[in-house]
Specification:
The relative contact order is 0.11. The chain has 26 helices and 22 strands. It is of the alpha/beta class. Strands 14-22-21-16-20-17-19-18-15 form a 9-stranded mixed β-sheet, sandwiched between helices. The protein is elongated, with a radius of gyration of 67 Å.
Amino acid sequence: MPGDVSLPTTAASRTTPRLAVGYSRVASPRTPPPDEFRSLLHKLWRRRQFVVIGVVCVVGAVAVLTYLQPRTYRSSALVLVEEQNRRTDIPVLAALQSLTGDQIETEIELIKSRNVLESVVDQLDLHVSVEASDDRLRPGEVLRDFTAGRDAVPGSYVVRSDRASGYVVTDLETEAVVAVGNPELEITFAGLAGTIPPALVAQGFTIHTSRFGVAVQNAQRQVDVSRVNGEADVIRVVCEGPAPELAHALCDRTLRNYIQLRTNLQRAEATAEATFLRGQVTRLGEQLEAAEDSLESFSRRNQVVALADRATEEVTKYTQLKGERDALEAERSALAGLIQEIESESVDTRKYRDLASFPTFLRNASVRELLSDVNRLEDQRAELVLRRSEENQDVVAVDGRIGDLERQVRSIAVSYEHSLAAQIRSIDTTLVQMSRSLATLPTTQVQVERLERQAESLEDLYRLLETRLREAEVAEAVNLPSVRVVDAASMPLAPASPNPQLNLALGLVLGLGVGVLLALYRDSADTSLRERQEVERETGLPVLSMIPRQRDAGPLIPFKRLRPHQNNSRKVLTASGAYEPEKPVRARREQSEAMTEFTIEAIRSLAADLSFAGTAHGLDSAQAVAITSAGRDEGKTFTACNLAMIRATHGTKTLLIDADLRAAGATRFFNVPPDRDGLSDLLQGKCELSEVSLEIAVDQSKLWMIPAGTPTANATPLLESPEFGKLINRARTKFDLIIVDTAPLSLISDAATIATVVNSVVVVVRGGRTDRDALEITLDRLARCGGNVIGVVLNDVRVPGGYYSRYAYGYGTYGTKKA
């Protein structure tokens, strides 16, 4: 770098305009709101190792527990409950039957009752077990004629061989000898009795006895009884046991004892019902006899014989007599009216003729004869009146005779009218008597019917009870069961539990849940930044480029260092004391070509953004960019060095300054010897700029570099000195782009000093490593010192393998397109 330029003494005297874009804590409006579901899936995929760990741990634990869990066998049977067809209309019996409730539920409770299971425990000796050769066996399987009473003493008894007595039984808890004896002989101790085979005595065994009540409770838990469905009167009995034979025996014995209990209950019910019915039949027989006697006595006393026919006959007579009375009354009224007219003042002989023409008189011969005489005398009078006068003696005599005849007719009519009146009075008297007689008939009929109904009811009930009594006596004698075993107890062929497939499936689901929770917890506890959206949301700065994860963070383009302008008199690098042209350093190609091309394109994108930023703000001098990060190993040196090389290949005169005086990352990146003079020596005035600058050949182009120099503990004062600002201003006159690799800023303030001198600052964030708090401290320091942070580079980004193929098309080696 020939020639020196005059530099201002302070950084404040710079006339180079600063980029307007600055650090802001407000989120970028261009960042769209993240989709929560996709974000959740992405978090789970990012923490998939924790999901896998959760699944493996839970499934492994479930598999181990399933393997260690004792095997359980199940035996099942079906029982048909026949509907009770016997129904009764007797109120007492109907009330008793209504108290029984649902018969199916009753039968279920009977099967699970202590009465049934106590007999099962007693028959199978479930409160006693034999432990021989690490196996739990039923005592009946190894001991002959074994019996265990319900009062067997709980405890563990060890049976060992004894040369003197044959065998000895010792209480395991008290170590006291409870029995001794010879094999093949019956022995009794602690409520147990049986014959011990010699082979079993030789190997020794232990007899475990528990409380009888505890064994019954265990049996109740092992027996499950339920209705098959709500429509069928079928009960399913399921019994569990540690062995197939025990499960089968438990189910079979439970059914047998239940059938026996049901038979006894049914027999007792039939006996009780027969006894009750006998008493009721006797009582109703006496009541029926008394009712029949009452009916007979009342009928005899009231002469009750065919009351219905008698009532019908009397009603008919009454009706006929009433009709006769009404006819006589009508005839009498008509006759009385004629007589009244005849007795009026104006007498007309025609009225007598009307009286004579009365229907009753027409049937009377004497009246007809009188009427004939009256008609004859009237004819005679009419002839006399024609010849003689009214006062003629003959006419007067005829009139007298006519009057006599009319008075006779009147007398007959009056007498007949009196006769009719007498008949009517007689009929009225008869009708009154008949009315009184008819009035008594309903009361008698009602009483008779009541007595008859009472007798009939008692007779019907008596007959019904006699029928029920005969049925009860038949049921008592025949003993027909109302429940039947449809399917006998089955012999289990495979253990019912544990179910490895189900357990592993549930373990897989539970493991997924645990893994997801673990992954979400780990993600929530992780304060590092990973995604572009997270970085932009947290910083409010745009992500300028995303660099994929590298297997080896080395140079992406081959380079070689050229001979310097003059030798360093204080450092000898070769035997002759002079620098010789070095062999080219090849790019690190351990990763795939596609990944390398993709990374180069990402660095090119960053270079383009920096170029656009300088053009947009009208810089009249070279652009100086500081590359920093919040912490170590976040990729700032890799980004700075490769950015400098790529800009150099584009024809941009680029200077790379390694301002990280403590770590000297860029110096090591280009394999520069650590003892070579560099920036620290230049700022201390130990050497000139031309002595420390290096020329690096990059793809037919040159890149100038100032290494870090001799390590020093006073890095911050050197960078804060006016000499560093002068160096940057001098470099602007000779170079198009100045890239400064700085130290991390979260704990060291070197980069903050450099930010006041350069035009812009780029912060490198490593995905999954950079902490939010450290990044916030870095940005706050840059904001306080006035640093112009233009964006963020997101490094170490996981990119799917297939993603590279979309960007690495058509390229072989760097800069050479495939044919």
